[in-house]
Design a protein that fits this description.
Helix 3 packs parallel to helix 4 and helix 6 packs across helix 8. The mean pLDDT is 94. The longest helix has 16 residues. By secondary structure, this protein is α/β, with parallel strands linked by helices. Strands 2-7-6-5-4 form a five-stranded mixed beta sheet. The chain folds into two domains: 127 residues, 3-Layer(aba) Sandwich (Udp-n-acetylmuramoylalanyl-d-glutamate--2,6- Diaminopimelate Ligase, Chain: A, domain 1); 161 residues, P-loop containing nucleotide triphosphate hydrolases (Rossmann fold, 3-Layer(aba) Sandwich).
Length: 307
């Protein structure tokens, strides 16, 4: 199971450490946060104790309205479950009992000046990205016309060269050679780089190119949602390469099916142009349009008119 330390999260959001500074090495494994509400009135049946606990104005105001004894009891009941950490938003103060129990139980207590809802959204997105299941594949990842694609094929078949041509046509590189895939939702796969290959494109006979230095910032993008899996294949004379309508094919990554397209290579073919066409066609199909259906409808209409 993937995890992230509280210290790394605290640095990412510039959080103030109020208590438990010696225990920031503790890890977070859950990609969502929780705001304890029912727990402060004694209901713990579904308490997600492994999640980061967020205390905003609503929770702190409620605790301040209690008597000292009630406040001590309610906070103590939540802290004894040892969640990874507590984070107080809006720079709220008056945290005497919370600080006391967190110190006694060695639980980090952190604080931010950000508004609760905005901070929760940011932190949930951050944790979801950092803790998402992932895998690495040999491919090139691009964003073409706003469509995230994987270019796959045997080594030396021309993936990086095709990517270079696409960059020259104002499309964006995500990663070359090694692509990291992250599952951030039940049907969502993000493609990104592995930090080492960030901004680099390797071209045989040329070497490494830093696409940002050569083509500018617009040539690179940090990540993209994968919509198409495009495989570059050698041309085979015996294959039927002129189908008017292909049966849908898919490649599965981390349990998510991604539409799969094969592009057969042949001297004189504009491979980058075919990749653009595949992306445009995918976009139109997502809008409910099928060129093949329209073509067959026209034929059917002509046949009916002849009758």
């Amino acid at each position: 199971m993937k995890s992230i330390t509280i210290e790394k999260m605290a640095r990412a959001f510039s959080l103030e450490v109020l208590e438990g500074g010696d225990f920031l090495h503790r890890t977070i494994t859950q990609p969502r946060t929780h705001r304890p509400g029912l727990e402060f009135i004694g209901y713990f049946d579904y308490f997600p104790k492994k999640q980061v606990q967020i205390l905003g104005k609503k929770e702190i105001t409620y605790l301040h309205k209690l008597t000292d004894e009630e406040r001590r009891h309610r906070i103590g009941n939540v802290v004894k479950y040892h969640p990874p950490c507590f984070i107080v938003t809006r720079g709220l103060e008056g945290l005497t009992y919370l600080r006391k129990f967190c110190k006694e139980e060695s639980i980090p207590l952190l604080r931010t000046t950000e508004k609760t809802s905005e901070f929760v959204d940011k932190l949930n997105n951050y944790l979801k990205n950092k803790l998402a299941p992932e895998m690495a594949i040999h491919a090139v990842c691009m964003n073409v016309f706003g469509v995230g694609i994987l270019l796959r094929g045997k080594s030396g078949i021309g993936k990086s060269e095709t990517a270079h041509t696409l960059i020259g046509r104002s499309h964006r590189l995500i990663a070359d050679d090694i692509v990291v895939l992250k599952k951030t939702g039940s049907q969502t796969i993000l493609g990104t780089h592995n930090q080492t290959n960030k901004e680099f494109l390797a071209l045989r006979s040329i070497g490494l190119l830093n696409v940002v230095r050569v083509y500018g910032r617009k040539a690179f993008q940090e990540e993209t949602r994968i919509a198409l899996d495009i495989e570059l294949c050698p041309w085979e004379e015996d294959d039927l390469n002129n189908e008017l309508e292909l049966e849908p094919q898919y490649t599965e990554y981390l349990g998510v099916k991604i539409p799969h397209v094969k592009i057969h290579l042949h001297p004189g073919r504009d491979v980058a142009g075919l990749v653009e066409a595949a992306c445009t066609n995918y976009y139109l199909m997502q809008q409910g349009y099928s060129a093949a259906e329209e073509f067959f409808d026209r034929i059917q209409s002509q046949l009916e008119n002849e009758d």
